[in-house]
# Entry
Amino acid sequence: MNKINLIISREYLTRVKKKSFIVMTILGPILFAAMMVVPAWLASMEDTNIKNIAVIDGSGIFINKIPDTDYIKFEYVQNQNLKKIKANFSELNYYAVLQVLPSITYEPSAVHLYSEKQPSFSVKSHISNAMEKELKNKKLRAHGIDDEVLRSIKSDVSIRTIQWTEDGEAKESSTEVAIIVGYASGFLIYFFIFLFGAQVMRGVLEEKTSRIVEIIVSSVRPFQLMMGKIIGIALVGLTQFLLWTILTFALITGAKTIFFPELGTQNAQEVVVQDIMEKEIMPQSEQIPTQDLDKVASIFNSIKTIDFGVMFGSFIFFFLGGFLLYGSLFAAVGSAVDNETDTQQFMLPITIPLILGIFVMMNAVQSPDSPVAFWFSIIPFTSPIVMMVRIPFGVPYWELALSMSLLVITFIGTTWLAGKIYRTGILMYGKKVNYAELWKWIRYKS
# Structure
């Protein structure tokens, strides 16, 4: 056991001191934090320049019907033609000129927006939405439906998901956040297994081709060397993940404080779940209409609904279990060949379950309780990826225990098989190995 500990220590310290490890440990959290904060920050930013748009309405339908916004203002010009406005466009300080032809009621393309530069998408969508709404209202009025009825039938639906816990407590959840957290966890395990599994294979291959392994195995048994290398690199991956988690959390918290300081206080728009439950039994006349939640605040608040204790513990277990399973196979492949080119024929059976797990994961985020998602979260070769997607949606503990138990049993079996290949292949040189040869090595008696 002391020899395995020495090998683990050597593999761990050698890799954490590398510049590539330090650089990726720093860059990783910055990239992860940027992926979460930058979109929210950009979404909260608006173009504050006032845009004055002249409207020449030849149909007369939209006069004073396109609403102004804080930064988009409409000026309805009468008795002026387009050529005259175009000639004095710069002096008039218009952002654009909107021309509506009389044929708008039967010709959808009878609207032209003239500008010296490409109009922004927000301006174009605001105009089109307002005009479509007014045309629809005009057609409804033509059928005898007045404005009061039109106002009364306007309805908005915003679905808030409420989850009941086992003790009957109601907690607000977010399907979107669960999808993001689950998908990110599954993909990270896929990424770590491939990244650090390849390091195991290359490390074994380098020691074999440099003949250093001949000296090492004179002091330790091949199985001890393989286990020390696998566990040491697993701890390197675990260390990097923990550092990424801590630094990413710190960066997101700091960015939230800097860019969204108002989110640190209680949001006036936020309605607690208890209030929602009470409103469900209140008469309609007594209910107080609520405003939409701020999108950015909703993202940060919904993250709190995820049970990160279970997520973090499960991630550590499935990462270690999945890596020990695949790491032993990568080590066996590295010991069986003399160069990296020859590894391709043996890599396919290893990579197929991982790639299959990614495809099932994409389906599982849509239907986490489907039979496909269930069975692939139980099968050990895909469970580290697929189960992590299902956990944010809530997985019965017996399913989680079954998946974990089968994963432990399977990685013990694969480690035993890989050890039999490793002990023979690590000292085998100059011979092209095939699957039949590997089967012979597995059947060799100690």
